[in-house]
Write a structure and sequence with these properties.
With about 350 residues, the protein is of the alpha/beta class. The chain folds into 2 domains: about 270 residues, P-loop containing nucleotide triphosphate hydrolases (Rossmann fold, 3-Layer(aba) Sandwich); about 60 residues, Ubiquitin-like (UB roll) (Roll), CATH 3.10.20.30. It is built from 15 helices and 12 strands. The strands form 3 sheets. The chain has a 6-stranded mixed sheet with strand order 2-4-1-5-6-7, sandwiched between helices. A hairpin with a 4-residue loop joins strand 8 and strand 9. Helix 1 packs parallel to helix 9 and helix 1 packs across helix 11.
Length: about 350
């Protein structure tokens, strides 16, 4: 799963990337003409506790990839269209984090002359809408010509979905918060439409703004927040400095500035929620592991994530939720109290389930 980080120049985009990935880049790396990638472990205190119980040879956390998307140069924001290089780099991501600058720094002036929350957000939204609209309109024209020749029902269905998308985009609204069905989204998947990607707006503050975050959220809730558009605040420079400290020193640092949770943990959690992801666990003496699946997946589908053979040869899943296991202290006690159970292939896996797959 890949999350792209975008933002105007001097917004703190690369600072956020380095903070959450601990991939400290020097200036020569930052100016290179390629995006920076880092795969990181998803923090999960539940997995840590399970490893403490089973003392396995190996503990494997779920992983997620972050990308510091490059290609947007100073001055591009004043043009009518972002560079094709930048848009191409954005399209390959499953979800996006847009870093919006709210801090003032006279030594690093804002490229557009001043701080403006909604202007900076709408610059990206407008360009993404224009990019998507161009793709949709071109495809609609081609589909109409093909349907005249073939009368293919699948093409007619695709045309209907794209025409609906065209109407949404013409109204200057992103697709991510519209009423598109799962079937609609499946049809759109191959187009990699930018406004269909879940978006997390990350507001980059400095320490002087710690008491005033509510006003920014009030603006966003009224104008931008939707089912697949969320927002979060972070203190870019502070958290970057904190990421270079040992954990004990970092905790003191957080307490001093009133930071309750690191950017890493909060952004990972929000990214998971945006993408509709959750974790289940497998445990044992050899390995305790967190597996990432989409919400709503069945036990059989989850088994297939572990190994493709488990999907095809699935019989039953032994299931106990993490909370029940910790409460009762063992599988035997969980079973005695009715918290351990056998589930069939249609069982919908819950976040935090501990699963053992029975298969042929």
């Amino acid at each position: 799963m890949q999350i792209g980080i975008v933002g105007l120049p001097f917004s703190g985009k690369s600072t956020l990337f380095q903070t959450i990935t601990k991939a400290h880049l020097d200036q020569s790396q930052l100016v290179k003409a390629e995006s920076h990638h880092a795969v990181i472990k998803v923090p999960d205190s539940r997995l840590e506790k399970l490893s403490g119980v089973f003392n396995p040879k190996k503990t494997t956390f779920a992983a997620i990839e972050f990308v510091d998307v490059i290609g947007l140069q100073k001055g591009d924001s004043g043009s009518s269209q972002f560079t094709s290089n930048f848009l191409g780099n954005v399209k390959t991501n499953d979800a996006l984090i847009q870093v919006v600058r709210l801090f003032n720094n006279e030594l690093v002036p804002h490229p557009l002359g001043g701080i403006d929350l909604m202007r900076d957000i709408e610059i990206f939204e407008t360009e993404f809408i224009l990019s998507d609209l161009a793709i949709v309109e071109k495809r609609v024209d081609n589909l109409k010509k093909q349907i005249l020749k073939t009368q293919d029902d699948a093409l007619k269905r695709e045309l209907s979905v794209l025409q609906k998308c065209g109407e949404i985009l013409q109204a200057e609204k992103p697709l991510r918060d519209s009423d598109l069905t799962p079937d609609d989204l499946h049809i759109l998947k191959t187009y990699q439409l930018l406004t269909a990607k879940p978006m997390l707006i990350a507001l980059n503050l400095d320490e002087s703004q710690a008491e005033g975050t509510e006003k920014y959220f009030d603006i966003l809730v009224k104008k931008k927040i939707g089912k697949n558009t969320k927002a979060i605040t972070f203190f870019g420079q502070i958290e970057f400095e904190m990421s270079e400290l040992e954990s004990a020193d970092a905790e003191i640092f957080m307490n001093e500035y009133g930071i309750k949770e690191s950017a890493l943990k909060s952004i990972i959690r929000e990214a998971y929620n945006l993408l509709g992801l959750q974790s289940f666990f497998t445990v044992g003496e050899d390995e305790c592991r967190a597996w990432t699946i989409r919400k709503g997946m069945t036990a059989q589908e989850a088994a297939g994530v572990i190994h493709s053979d488990f999907y095809n040869k699935f019989i039953r899943a032994e299931v106990v939720h993490y909370d029940d296991f910790i409460h009762h202290g063992s599988f035997a006690q969980a079973k005695e109290h009715g918290a351990w159970r056998l589930e069939g292939k249609e069982y919908i896996v819950k976040d935090g389930d501990i699963i053992s797959v029975r298969h042929n």
